[in-house]
Amino acid sequence: MGQPLNNQPLPQLNVFSFSGVQMRTFHITWMTFFVCFFGWFGIAPLMPAIRADLGLTKPQVGNTIIAAVSATIFARLIIGKLCDSWGPRKTYTALLLIGSLPVMLIGLAHDYTSFLLFRLAIGVIGASFVITQFHTSAMFAPSIKGTANAVAGGWGNLGGGITQLAMPLIMATIIGFGFVKADAWRLAMIVPGLMMLVMAFIYWKYTKDTPAGNYDEINRTAAAKSSVPFWQACADVRVWALAIAYACCFGMEITFDGVAALYFFDNFHMEETEAGFWAMLFGFMNIFARAVGGIVADKIGQKYGMRGKGILLASMLLLEGLGILLFAQSGNLTMAIVSMLTFAMFLKMANGGTYAIVPFINPKAVGVISGVVGAGGNVGGMLMGFLFKSQSISYGQAFMYIGGIVAVVGLLLFLVNFGRTVTIEQVETELQTA
């Protein structure tokens, strides 16, 4: 406690400030996550062109959607542990360098198999979320963690929305220079890969693992870094309840990011850029919706504790499920857009609400638990992907099934008591000894 304030986690979030290692790291972290999402889902709005170029069938398109989220499941488990032991700065830099390669090289794919393998490799980038939440948690005090995590996560997820419009525009620009569409989508993917390389340099040079410095600078010992074994951290039923909840909110988000452009393109007979615009609106909600979830969760947590946060999360999931059911039955574009924005609001608030709980489950194993819960989101996305590859199930029917499942999970989550009688001071003490 004798250290100056600038070496301690911040007790407030001033998003207009760039001073101090905490706020500098906060802004670089969410911008890096934004770029990672840009690379992760940059291919999605180009799928109408890619489908035609490679002659992909509906099941094959579905398999590529599944591949995009499957690799992330295992990557998030590994990355979470690396954050605890190696530090977020080194971990993020390495992930950016490695992940940029399949993003830039996917243009070399000339058949279904090679394209599928590249999509699988690109999926590793999704583990960036765990580092984002871990690093943000390290920079802010317990009373503001939920808000800080939600804002960083939401603004980063915004990349998944912006890419829906940006990548078709990049492809159209390349076509304007005289390239055919079959070559333009390949060249377009070089752009997000280069952006990732730039962020790797910035992350390494301008961030720190903790407010007090990097792990090796503050002599953080291996024992302290991994004081809680993986399986011990995961023995808490609340971890798995959060993983299932995240499967229903973030899992749906990445699934929708993958199929939205195709859904609007096929159902409402649009051009790629127009379909990308409507798909972008879904992701654009992240500019505020996830943050609202974290802010509300923090306010409720201060008054009603962890139990209150749990009830908020359950409510958001229930409303999300009902909104998806409404979207699945929309018969025109106006209804589809209104219902999409409705369920998007509750979905993204649930994302923020989930990670307003995660850092408090076990403050000595934030990386591990962030990884497990984050991986749960991708398991949800993978399972939902199987519905969209089926020849016998339409996209509308798939949304119906998903909406029903999410609503039921929301109801069941009311039964989980996330309450743990811990004061802010106790959590701060645990974090200082972690």
From TrEMBL:
Pfam families: MFS_1. It is a multi-pass membrane protein. InterPro entries: MFS (IPR011701), MFS_dom (IPR020846), MFS_trans_sf (IPR036259), NO3_transporter (IPR044772). PROSITE patterns: MFS. The keyword Membrane applies. Signal peptide: none annotated. Keywords: Membrane, Nitrate assimilation, Transmembrane, Transmembrane helix. One of its GO terms (molecular function) is nitrate transmembrane transporter activity. This is MFS transporter. It comes from Runella aurantiaca.
